[in-house]
Amino acid sequence: MIEGGKRIFGKGKTPKVSIITVTYNAAPLLTDYFENVKPYLSDDVELIIIDGRSIDATLYLLQQNGNDIDYWLSETDNGIYDAMNKGVICARGQWLYFLGADDYLKEGFTQMVAQLKDKNTIYYGDTIYYGKHYSKIYNAYYLTKLNFVHQSLFYPRSVFDKYQYEARYRVYADYHLNLLLWGNDKFRFEHRPLLIAGFPEGGFSTHEKDPEFEKDRNKLFKKHLGRAAYYRYLNRSIGWFKTFFRIISNG
Question: CATH code at 30?
Answer without folding.
Answer: 3.90.550.10
